[in-house]
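1st attempt posting a full record on here, be nice pls
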Amino acid sequence: MNTSATKLTSKIFAFSHLLSIFNTTNSCVTARKLISYSDYQPLHVIDGAGLYQTTLINDNQAYLQMIDLSKIQIDQLVGEVANIGFDQGKYYHGEGNYYSLFFKMKLFSEITKEYKQLYKNQIFSIINCAFFEQYKPSTQLSFPIKVNGKIITAGNSPYGLISKPKHEFYSQVCLKALVWDKKHVYITDYEPVSGAPLNQTNVQNAIVTYQYSDHPAKVLAHNQVNRYHVIGILNRDGVNCDELLLILTVKGATLDAAAE
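the predicted structure (as tokens):
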């Protein structure tokens, strides 16, 4: 981060980590302690973005990024393609009808160095944002991603809305899509058979994943304490489309606590 920068870029990575999309209308959280905006202390604030910190009830830290899409550019970055994965895609236009590429894993330090050389001091933040299926040098991603108008993978997760998921819970799960352009961001239901909304030409950038309450870490692993990103959106003026992207990172919390 650089406090002298005036036009900064927020990076959202399309590889190798956990992300859960949530919206508050579907939250099943039992409130224990509601954290207000005043509980967040600013760490770095510029025109269009801010990083804030608060302490959770277990003394772990939570970090909140607020990104104004009308002022901040978001890029999706992936590793090089190692294998095509022909007809292995499961979540775009039906099972087996699209590719599920294998992307090479890259160290976070490598990515940081490359993009600091490219953008110099204009980078606000870099995060890992899409989770992977195999712990190998190259891996398929779980769900579809659209980058600059192109579907780059149809995903390959066994825990989703497919004919024979690894757990029966996922035979009825509703996946979510985070969609954004140069001014707005929104979260909507994702339809694997049609590919909507990723199949729409006006949708240029999008990632697909679970609502937080459907994430395997909650459903299958008993809502264990871990490190998570949860993402939400906020309509700042109450009139136009949603324009603020909220990214919360917790070091040691359950998904329920992170969403709360």
